[in-house]
Amino acid sequence: MTQSFQKVRALTGMKDVLPDTSAQWEGLEATVRDWLAGYGYRNMRTPVLEHTRLFTRGIGEVTDIVEKEMYSFTDSLNDEQLTMRPEFTAGMVRACIEHNMLYERPQRVYALGPVFRHEKPQRGRYRQFHQIDVEALGFAGPDVDAELIVMLARLWKLLGLADIRLELNSLGQAHERAAHRAALIEYLEQHKSVLDEEALRRMYTNPLRVLDTKNPAMQAMADNAPRLFDFLGEASLAHFQGVCERLQDAGIAYRLNPRLVRGLDYYNLTVFEWVTDRLGAQGTVCGGGRYDGLIELLGGKPAPAVGFAIGMERLLDLCSQAGEAEAPPECQVYMIHQGEAAQRRAALLAEELRDAGLRVIVHAGSSGFKSQFRRADASGAKAAVILGDDELASDSASVKWLRQEDAGEQPQQESVGFDRLTTVLKNRV
Ligand code: HAM
């Protein structure tokens, strides 16, 4: 009796990156690492799994992420509440505290990798997505806020991206937010009749987020609500001005958006987002800001900090709109053989070619010349090296140049002695 097995598919909102597109990811990652090194940022890697309380405390209980988007579970082996990281910042701060990294000097650090949020998937919004996360820990001044933004402008330029604009706001300090919050709650109480269910639920717990609504029926109410910016004191305004002036120095345009509050609770003073109209509904490519209270909140010695994260899927979507990246070839040399002796010799010759730094595929198994040539063509190799009985007898290989432009003045196929094979291929592929 034959048994049929059902296919197992990837989870909704979680995507495979296949070899053809993986090259684009690797290219972006290489550019990003160089770009970050240019500003003194060093890589770190933190675990995907953390204690749930790290995120509830760090990101805030009354946020979309903590309320409904975290992949959390109880580890039945030791009854611990664990969560797959929904962002990097909390984990990076935890690690820096745990390893006493902030006692000696401030730290410029970054991480790349997957993060997890149980959101409704659509273009640009996934349940497993990837962030480039950059954090400057232990820096208080507006110079570092501005440097991070200038850095991002450089990245867009390096990647040939236009049409990304900067939105900027200041969330002030806790006491300023408290004064604004009281005024805002009073205002919301006066406008209860237009608030939707979510707004009513949040008006006392997170009233600022009520203004971040997408509900058209609430727009007018939100537009006329008391603005946090108007509650900022002298020091907060001076910090904000310090950032703005440095952006002007660098020739970076920005729009002051007093409604920009971000979806995580740890921010104070500067917050910013880079947005584009080229990605449909999910147009925020990068978001960040200052979070001077988080290190203390997570048990560290109080220290200021600022950072941002870029969504890699969104960035790659923009990059591929800017210019179609071609998948690089699988190899430079493809080895074709006929008969067991030739196959074994091909395997040894390939090792010699790899010693010289060439990328080589040896045809696996035995098949006819025609089908081996088809594979060689599809591999993108510039040369096929052919071995059969005649070649073995004369200690030479037939080399066929597969790309017309590489043949030059030479014949399309030539016989090359084994002793010269590495040199000839190395010079021509
Ligand atoms: P965030 O705004 O939640 O900030 O996320 C940063 C970026 O991740 C977004 O601007 C967007 O490009 C991308 N992103 C968010 N959700 C999704 C999703 N479901 N699918 C695809 N891409 C997504 C943070 O995570 C903060 N930790 C940033 C930060 C670092 N602030 C200070 N330091």
UniProtKB/TrEMBL annotation:
Superkingdom assignment: Bacteria
Keywords for the protein's UniProt record, in alphabetical order: Aminoacyl-tRNA synthetase, ATP-binding, Cytoplasm, Ligase, Nucleotide-binding, Protein biosynthesis
Catalytic activity: tRNA(His) + L-histidine + ATP = L-histidyl-tRNA(His) + AMP + diphosphate + H(+)
Gene Ontology CC terms, in alphabetical order: cytoplasm
Annotated coiled-coil segments of the chain: none
GO MF, one example: histidine-tRNA ligase activity
Locations listed in the record: Cytoplasm
Residues involved in L-histidine binding: 87-89, 117, 131, 135, 262, 266-267
Domain Aminoacyl-transfer RNA synthetases class-II family profile residue range list: 1-328
Principal location: cytoplasm
Swiss-Prot/TrEMBL GO biological process terms: histidyl-tRNA aminoacylation
Class of the enzyme per the UniProt entry, highest EC level: ligase
CDD domains with a match to the protein in the record: HisRS-like_core, HisRS_anticodon
Keyword Cytoplasm: yes
EC nos: 6.1.1.21
InterPro entries per record: aa-tRNA-synth_II, aa-tRNA-synth_II/BPL/LPL, Anticodon-bd, Anticodon-bd_dom_sf, His-tRNA-ligase, HisRS-like_core, HisRS/HisZ, HisRS_anticodon
Quaternary structure and partners: Homodimer.
PANTHER family membership: HISTIDINE--TRNA LIGASE, MITOCHONDRIAL-RELATED, HISTIDYL-TRNA SYNTHETASE
Stated family: Belongs to the class-II aminoacyl-tRNA synthetase family.
Protein name: Histidine--tRNA ligase
Protein source organism: Parapusillimonas granuli
